[in-house]
Please model this.
Amino acid sequence: MFEVAVEHEFAAGHALRGYKGKCENVHGHNYKIQVVVAGEELDSVGLLVDFKNIRSQIHSTADRLDHQFLNDLPPFDRVNPSAENLAKYFFEEIQQNYDEESLKVKSVTVWESSGTWATYHLGEL
Ligand SMILES: [Zn+2]
Model:
């Protein structure tokens, strides 16, 4: 099994509804996101998937969130914009573009700061 990953950063504000503590107040993060794509087969060039392809998938989702207040944007107007829910959202958005058996999004990790992250990943891996 091969894995390739692309990382990307974006900035956004959020507030965690129902959280008792500082994070219920409006604040911002410089989020880092890592998308890992996995598969068994390489193409004739020797690539699992072009990094540029993954990068453009991340951009199409992250650019909608960049420099926004996440709580105002679907689905985070209903779902709390925690790192966990952000990871799941990116996973579900990006995996729609990798629905072949041979190539899957394996995991998405979202860092809120350099030492705190949450991952959403395929159950069977
Ligand atoms: Zn926060």
Remarks:
- Strands lie at 2-14, 27-39, 103-113, 116-121.
- The longest helix spans residues 51-65.
- The chain has a mean pLDDT of 94.
- The domain at 2-121 is CATH 3.30.479.10 (Tetrahydropterin Synthase; Chain A).
